[in-house]
Write a structure and sequence with these properties.
The complex is a heterodimer. By secondary structure, chain A is of the alpha+beta class. Chain A folds into 2 domains: 37 residues; 179 residues, Alpha-Beta Plaits, CATH 3.30.70.20. The chains are: A alpha+beta, B mainly alpha.
Chain lengths: 256, 152
């Protein structure tokens, strides 16, 4: 008897577990609940824009005008440490050590700090929000203040943000900061107020070598689509599966 | 039904009702339109003022400078790279608060000072300290709109 009861309860246990697992799986596929996992995905309709960014490291001359323009365009505090966009100079010395420098985000320009004979290679890396398709920053927001717009731009709702700065910690690229005055999270909007008016984002408007472009990844005639076709591009920290949409041409493996 | 449940159930129902009413008034209308966020905030960001007017606006008035620019090495550069954000100046000619006219060695050196990381051949690299030290500024000799028109 005891033996039979045991078998029964085991069968029931497996049944119940299977039912529960099945329900969870089925619910997770439903639209309203999938929003909990990913804020947005690539739009199903390919005629709608899905913005990405292309940066050509080989063209960047490190003038820092992008970082400067970003602050002026978006009225960001001129104090150091508050950056939506900045430039880093990587220098790999002949002894294998790596020096990364970004004096005031590159806003005042760069001066070569390592003598020529010690340099193995050196290059500039402009950095900004990667506008990830599976952005860690939007997933951790407890109040729905940060989100990916239907065009794939990660934005912050200043009125909803309560300044917990969880997203600042979550971004693996260091692209967010807490605004010193509003005490809310702040970040690159891909100059949403400019691109909706048909203008270039400020950093791209002032880039003298056209090292940075943005465009619609769905537009097969577009500039970005062509850029990705003609260059071997790489994203930052691909192992984190953030779905980054910032593509670098000529990215060296030393870049973090 | 136990008597405790009978007394508590209406109370619970009332709480749930009050919660739903409060929720209705507290959640903004556009919340959840596209996802778990307030859709109106996108419009609020979109109407923020611009500061960089864009080259096409500049050259509407400054056509001689634009023509000169396209004739020489600096062709293709946007005006506001050097001159700063001037959307306000485009709206009202007399507003020149951000207008930059800097021909110093440091300013031109942002692009042209020797740096091993600057590899574009057509961005000429100059030792900004040693290059013609008898002159103070780059613009003492070079016209920034047409760089190879050397002033005497």
């Amino acid at each position: 008897m005891g033996d039979k009861r045991m078998k029964d309860s085991r069968r029931n246990f497996i049944k119940r577990t299977a039912a529960l697992a099945g329900t969870i799986l089925a619910t997770s596929a439903l639209k309203p609940f999938s929003a909990v996992i990913f804020a947005t995905g690539k739009p199903e309709d390919p005629s709608k824009p899905w913005y990405g960014i292309g940066i050509d490291i080989e063209k960047c001359i490190g003038c820092g005008m992008c970082a400067k323009a970003c602050k002026l365009e978006n009225d960001i505090s001129q104090e150091p440490f508050y950056f939506r966009s900045w430039v880093e100079q990587y220098t790999i010395r002949t002894d294998g050590t790596i020096k990364v420098e970004s004096p005031n985000g590159g806003i005042d320009g760069f001066t070569q700090s390592v003598p020529d004979e010690e340099i193995y290679k050196t290059f500039f890396v402009p950095k900004m929000c990667n506008h990830c398709a599976k952005s860690p920053c939007t997933q951790v927001c407890p109040v729905g203040a940060t989100y990916e717009s239907p065009e794939g731009i990660a934005l912050v709702d200043e009125k909803y943000c309560m300044g917990c700065s969880y997203c600042v910690q979550a971004c693996p690229y260091g692209c967010r900061y807490l605004h010193p005055e509003t005490k809310t999270a702040d970040k690159c909007t891909l100059c949403y107020h400019r691109i909706t008016k048909g203008l270039q984002p400020a950093c791209m408007e002032v880039c003298p070598t056209h090292a940075r472009i943005y465009g619609d990844l769905n537009d097969t005639e577009g500039e970005l689509y062509k850029f990705l076709k003609e260059h071997n591009c790489q994203i930052l920290k691909p192992h984190l599966n953030t779905g980054s949409k910032l593509f670098y041409n000529g990215l060296s493996s030393e870049v973090r | 039904m136990p008597v405790q449940l009978k007394t508590l159930l209406p109370l619970f129902a009332l709480f749930i009702l009050l919660f739903l009413i409060a929720r209705h008034f507290l959640i903004p209308e556009s919340f959840g339109k596209y996802g778990h966020y307030r859709a109106d905030s996108m419009d609020e960001i979109a109407v923020l003022p611009i500061h960089y007017a864009g080259k096409s606006v500049c050259i509407e008035c400054h056509d001689t400078e634009a023509e000169m620019l396209e004739s020489d090495q600096h062709a293709g550069l946007s005006c506001e790279i050097c001159h700063g954000p001037n959307a306000k100046h485009a709206d009202d000619y007399d507003v020149k608060e951000f207008l930059v006219k800097d021909g110093s060695r440091i300013f031109c050196g942002r692009c042209h000072a020797v740096n091993a990381a600057r590899k574009l051949e057509n961005v000429i690299q100059v030792d900004v300290v040693e290059h013609h030290p008898e002159k103070e500024n780059c613009t003492d000799c070079h016209n920034p709109h047409a760089v190879w028109e050397i002033k005497e």
